[in-house]
Amino acid sequence: NEAMVWVICALGLNIVVGYAGLLDLGFVAFWAIGGYSAGWFMSTFFRQVTFHFFSSPDAADQPGIHVSFWGVLIIGGIICAIFGIIIGAPTLRLKSDYLALVTLGFGEIIPQVFTNGENIGGFNLSNGTKGISPIDNVSVPGKILGPFDFSWKFAIFVFLTAVMVFVSLRLRKGRLGRAWLAIREDELAASMMGVALMPTKLAAYAVGAFSGGVGGVAFATHVNGVFADRFNFSISIILLAMVVLGGMGNVWGVMVGALLIAWINSTGLPAFGDLVNNSFGTSINFPSYNFLLFGGVLILMMLYKREGMIPESRLKAILHESDDETSNLGGHH
Predict the structure, then answer these.
(1) Is the separation of the CB atoms in 84 and 210 below 8 Å?
(2) CA 162 to chain centre
(3) Based on C-alpha coordinates, what's the Rg of the chain?
(4) Pairing relation of β-strands 42-43 and 64-67?
(5) Residues 246 and 226 sit within 8 Å (Cβ to Cβ)
(6) Are the CB atoms for 197 and 187 separated by under 8 Å?
């Protein structure tokens, strides 16, 4: 389930970074806002209000706001898209380095607001470090019986991922997707061709933020709670590593990158650590070095395979064209 959440968020970041070429280092903020949307609208957190809308049977007689999982997916996505537009409107005019710094700041500020949000002018926004838990179940029957004993929750997460893949592919082929790619290749040329730069960039930011919100809601229901300390800067970096490793702009590449890194994070590194520790009698905590590994992967990819494992054909052609030009210049001496 968690792997699917990573894929959903990585596909959202791919729209911002891979399609529109905008470096975003604060994507974790949208994941957090999505998670807290689930906390607000699918739990007993706001006890003074009692509101039910197609909520799961478990929440039938509980106080608080209880909206169905599908409703909260849309609400969380919309809240994130609005935040994306609010943050994007003033910052997307900035050049890439400054934009990266502003998004980095945004990604740090939002989790801090939630961490210290227990009393904002007398209003409890996030329950501070205690977080909001439990969250309503996804209202579906228990198991899909048959050869594979999949839980419904997993099936739903796979369905959400499939929808994200479909939307990403459709957007890329559409007019908006072509405008994003034009901006990524050359802003000046794009604006001369009649692409409205600001609205087009804002659209990329809003769509990416929406999917981050959907991922956040799904993650909160998966771990049955939302806790501020889960949303640290490292998530933004892991998501960026997934996009770069898989292949910026290539939906299938990003999926492979996301699944690979999610597997390394959850299973691969701990298993490798156990193997090494048992073989050599050491007691190294390998999972704690995951950033060293992902940072190394990013550096190696940038040096030797900038287009990623499964490159997007257009990006591959551009990168190799520039390499060829360099080698031709070298050959004319």
Answers:
(1) yes
(2) 15
(3) 21
(4) antiparallel
(5) no
(6) yes
Phi, psi (degrees; rounded to nearest 5) at 282: -95, 175
Q: What are phi and psi of 316, to 5 degrees?
A: -60, -45
What confidence tens digit (pLDDT) does each residue in 208-246 have?
999 999 999 999 988 888 988 888 888 898 899 899 888
pLDDT digits (tens, 9 = 90+) for 281-313: 788 787 787 878 888 878 888 788 777 778 777
Q: Does domain 2-331 have CATH number 1.10.3470?
A: yes
Question: 10 Å Cβ neighbour count for 145?
Answer: 9
Burial of 32 (0-12, 13-18, 19+ CB in 10 A): buried
**Please, are residues 211 and 218 in contact by the beta-carbon 8 Å criterion?**
no
What is the rounded average pLDDT for all residues in the chain? 84
> Which two three-digit tokens encode residue 193?
């061709």
Where are the strands (E) in the chain, listed by range?
A: 42-43, 50-53, 64-67
Q: What angle do CA 147, 150, 151 make, to 5 degrees?
A: 145
C-alpha to C-alpha distances, 10 to 134, 163, 200, 294, 306, nearest whole angstrom: 26, 14, 20, 15, 18
Contact by Cβ (8 Å): 172, 179: no
Residue 205 has pLDDT above 90, yes or no: yes
SS3 (DSSP) at 120: strand
d(CA 261, CA 245): 9
Confidence of residue 147 (pLDDT cuts 50, 70, 90): very low
Instruction: Order the strands of the 42-43 sheet from edge to edge.
Output: 42-43, 64-67, 50-53
Percent of the chain beyond pLDDT 70?
A: 88
pTM score over 0.70? yes
Q: What is the pLDDT of residues 43-95, one digit of tens each?
A: 888 777 777 777 666 666 777 788 888 899 999 999 999 999 998 888 888 87
Which residues fall within 8 angstroms of residue 291, CB to CB, at 6 or more apart? 234, 237
- For 235, the token pair is 């998530």
CB 309 within 8 A of CB 257: yes
